[in-house]
Amino acid sequence: MENNSNSGVIYQGKIPNRVKYCFAFGALGKDLIYGMIATFSMIYFTDIIKVAPAFIGSMFFVAKLWDAFNDLFMGMIVDNTRSRWGKFVPWLVIGTLINAFVFITVFTDFHLSGVSLCVFASVVYVLWGMTYTIMDVPYWSWLPNLTNDPREREKVSVIPRFFASLAGFSVATFGLYIINYLNKAAGESNLYAEKGYTLFAIIIAVIFIVTIGITVFNVKE
Q: Which pLDDT score, from 0 to 100, does residue 160 have?
């Protein structure tokens, strides 16, 4: 039953299956993005566009430290958001669109070198983390507001985590095969060329936007 009071939750008790799966489906796209970054970003930076491995290692470490503060800051912003679309949907939409663009940029070779290449890698990687947070924090913060029943909430949380695990597994297992295929389809003699990474990133970004769109248009806030 839908909640018409001001308690902050959408459903009193059981959540309809359509809502459960539409909400959970958003995790598939966002964790395809995360899986691609976690699995291939270091390989891409060091082996494809030739950033010094020592610099990339330091950059990843600094970015992780910044993410800890960024998550807290974004949580405060979401919690204090008041808009006609609610507190979660605006940031979920903004974060998804910006993050999809930055994600594609991460896997695009602008043929830079030296200091310019290091600056580019640092900026796009940190921006990716920040914009992912803009989307990820409201997504998971939305879950407790779906129902006032803790047991039902726990049941619902299993489904997006399954989709998230499926996304990560798929990228880690089949990602390199897909990249090789895309390079071959694009006429590249080197099956590990940059173009395959870029095309794969574009495909994932489109899936990301579609799956989050399904969540936003089918789950009430």
A: 93
Q: CA 107, CA 160: separation in Å to the nearest integer?
A: 26
**48-62 pLDDT, tens per residue?**
999 999 999 999 999
For residues 61 and 214, is the Cβ–Cβ distance under 8 A? no
CA distance 208 to 43: 22
Greater confidence (214 vs 12) lies with 214
C-alpha distance from residue 200 to each of 56, 146, 165, 178 (Å): 22, 33, 19, 7
CA distance 221 to 9: 8
Phi, psi torsion values for 113, nearest 5 degrees? -150, 165
Q: How far is CA 5 from CA 9, 12, 89, 145, 148, in A?
A: 9, 10, 20, 13, 12
**Torsion-angle region of residue 190: left (phi > 0), alpha (psi -120 to 50) or beta?**
beta
Range of weakest confidence among 11-15, 62-66, 185-189: 11-15
Query: Are 17 and 153 spatial neighbours (Cβ–Cβ below 8 Å)?
Result: no
Least confident of 2-11, 65-74, 167-176: 2-11
